Amino acid sequence: MSIRRLLVANRGEIARRVFRTCRELGIETVAVHSDADAGLAFVAEADSSVRLPGNNPAETYLRADLVVEAALKAGADAVHPGYGFLSESAEFARAVRDAGLTWVGPDPESIEAMGSKVAAKKLMADAGVPVLAELAPAEVGEGDLPVLVKASAGGGGRGMRVVRELDALADEVARAEAEAASAFGDGTVFLEPYVEHGRHVEVQLFGDASGRVLVLGDRDCSVQRRHQKVVEEAPAPGLPDDVRTAMHDAARRAGEAIGYRGAGTVEFLYDEARARFWFLEMNTRLQVEHPVTECVTGLDLVALQIAAAEGTPVDVEEGAPSGHAVEVRLYAEDPAAGWQPQSGPLHRFVVPGVDAELSVPARHGLRLDTGFRSGDEVSTHYDAMLAKVVAWGPTRDAALRRLAGALRRTELHGIRTNRDLLVDVLEHPAFVSAELRTDFLVRHDLPRAATSDCDPVALFAAAVAVTEEAAAARPVQRAVPAGWRNVVSAPQVTVFDRAGVEERVGWFGGRDGYRSAELDARVVEVRQGDGWRVVVEHGGVRLPHTVHVHGSSVDVQTPRDHVSLTRTPRFTDPADQLAEGSLVAPMPGSVVSVRAAQGDHVEAGATVLVLEAMKMQHTITAPHDGIVESLGVSAGDQVSAGDVLAVIHSDPVQPDDPVQPDDVTQPGQESA
Question: Which of 72, 85, 252, 645 has its CA 20 to 30 A from that of 566?
């Protein structure tokens, strides 16, 4: 049966990705969206769209009944689940089929077989696939540590905790259960031995309409943060031939054991030192990192999914990969602040040199998969991923170099991202040498500290741009040069905040232009266009800078880097000052639990409350020993970034030997 009109039960870049293939196949598209997503690109690009009602945007896409109703209302005859949300829900797959629609995915029975990680491990063991032993919390002793707590339903690092101390086990299990219940609607967790320094390697499968299960190569996804993938590449570098063959065979057995049809991925944990691997899970859907496999095979995995759903034979054979592909996930987060998710307006998002968007490049090149455009709002309701940038080259080194260069030139303004961290990883000697481990970031002390030195020339260019911006907006004395003084006695000073670091920039201005007070540098060109172009001559070299000013937010694109700054006002409103010891919300979110009460004594590092934002839980701790002077929130409250959650009053400093009243000697009186 040919699909005529397809609804994607998802959002953002994966919806746009599926739409791209549908357009090439001549299939009409339908988008569903929450109110928070109404202005995003995937809605505008669909042939038609349906609003999903609901007051909680975070839960909108999880309502199977609303999605099926939307498909019927729009006249769709098929549903593609994307990834995340309902993509691995057997109940949703059955609901789609029961409504007379074509389900673009594996059979519900296959989803069910792999839906519980506990049951899946038993099934895989019976099929001869190596698995790690499962542990019950009551059975764990000191000799079993460290252990990994994992959610039985879902993935993406949610509900996952590494436990290294026995005393912390019960609390970490409880937190994992709460996070899993919030993310997947199922709080079941299990424990298994934690393999230190392991690699995360996965195998791409495709089950065609005839029942064949094909292996379409492998990927390495070892570089992770908070158990979520950050960098993925295909093929997995450095695997011995016998290990690669054994892993492919094990993945095929896994797919055959459940009669798999469509695109799916079997994930393994690989211990390089012992040349052993174990089954982790099978994702019965398209993976976030599927583009790297598409780049090295030349296949369109979405088109294959549609063919399998239609029952159409495909002419696909297993084969050696062509070249190498590396993908990075751009996240709206602050790596230096515990990976805190970020939200707000994305003032500018431009990736230069892109050869293809959402599809395989016609030649070795650069691919961009994103659901965001310049001017979009990044909300707090969903995952923090902004985009995937993929480089494909004839060799791994070529792909790494092209991807790092593209990221440096990428203009990402308005919110903090992990872009600098990604460049650091791609250029790190250990990564270039393919020394890959799941603890890569911790092992190599990444991310880069936010207090690292900043290019002073970029700061000078920023000061010039904000001065010109103000001068262009003034209603009077427009002919007077910015920064001009009748008698020059001291430089002008512009102050910026750079990730909590104060940057003071001294400069002189006048009829002869701008020159730096600290550097042998002067501005040779400044003009307004797409942002401010500021060319600085420093040490005989002319360096062009593009500076974008959005209110107090200032972004500088240098010849090799990007600097994000906030203009510091000359005078601060006393009403904006916070009481000492204030705990403020680092991001918008909801209060999951409150662990302290007003009047309690807390120690430094003690948990005061837990926030949930962008599908992850974040612990707010006491900055020092003290008394909870005020506590303004309760469980279930919604908070905005910067809201004061609590105030911890420091313990008064006690002298080492306090003087007692009886010890005081009055004048003229001898002590006994």
Answer: 645
